[in-house]
Sequence to fold (403 residues):
Amino acid sequence: MYANFPIKIPQNASVQIRFTNLQGVANPYALIRLQVKKNSRSSEILLSMDILPTDPGCDFENGIVAANFIPGQTRAMLGDEIYKYDLLVNRQGRITYDYHGSFELIGTITRDGDSFNPVEYQSILEKLASTLTGFGAWMIGVDASYWTTLLGSPNLVLERCLRWLRENKLAKLNPFAPGRILKSGATDTEVLVTGIAIDAQDNVTGVKTLSLLDPPALAEHATRRDWVESDTSTRIQTAVNLLVDGSPNSANTLRKIFEILGNDPNFATTITSLIATKIPLSQKGTTNGVATLGSDGKIPSSQLPPSSGAVTSVNGQTGIVVLTNSDVNAAPASGISPGAITETTAKQFISAGLKGQVDEFTVISTLHQITPLSDETFFRYGPGCRERNRCKLAPTRPPSSRN
Fold:
């Protein structure tokens, strides 16, 4: 916003000029200043006015700013002249000039309090001490870095500094006892002493009740009942969780464990009594003790007890028992008859202790020993044999029919 708004006021008069529709000048309050110069190129400031939210006619919350001109501000300016002005608005460091224009001062003749002295019409000291608006505190300028830092403005007047003190001052402090905690009183500028004391070792005394809001970072510092109960419950639950997590599902509660133990209230005594009935490990492998297993998983014969009874029968026979080859499924000692051999897909041939599987068409180049029965020849030379070591083996005929 940059509105051209001409101002026309009488010289040496009390006049209020209102500026409206100023946005964002409250919460926080903006710093607003009106200045008048001969023209925009002039470096001389003829009039400078800081407009405060508490000035008459101001309503910063609704965007209304009032400039209250007093007689002393325009008295020294030339009447019937047209000057230039603008309205500076500082919103937290963002500066704009929302209004500007001509500043016409209509000349006046009559003055209040003028003397006939052509040099001085009123005592300067009297003006400075006056409580009237436009004199005294309003007219005294302040140029100090301290107040500039507090109020954020380099162009200050004493009245503005006094207002800041009034709004931010503390009430008169009472002669408090040392080491006591202070508290605010009924108003925002009142300070009272409490009965709570803090000694040199930071020990606090005189606290009747204590209401803490946030739990301490360390559980050991917990003082409120609910904090202590909560911490205790958390620790118990953690221990229970560790017990449950470390056990199988079938034994993760005390009830399941007791059921596994058979609900025996004297379980320890029962187990001790059962252990007492067992043979001690010290008797393992000793005489009249208990046997041990060998490397083959069997009891060594040296640890077997001696037989206490005689053999009463063998294969159903008593006395002197003679076992034949049929009793033990063995071949007869006199040899194997041809009828005892059963032809199969794979024949077995026995020669000089050599045992192997041979086909019926295999040629045996060397025959070490064959003992036939006396009444039947087992092998013969085949027809047309000339070299015995090359003849085929074949079943024989009786000697009367041999070629």
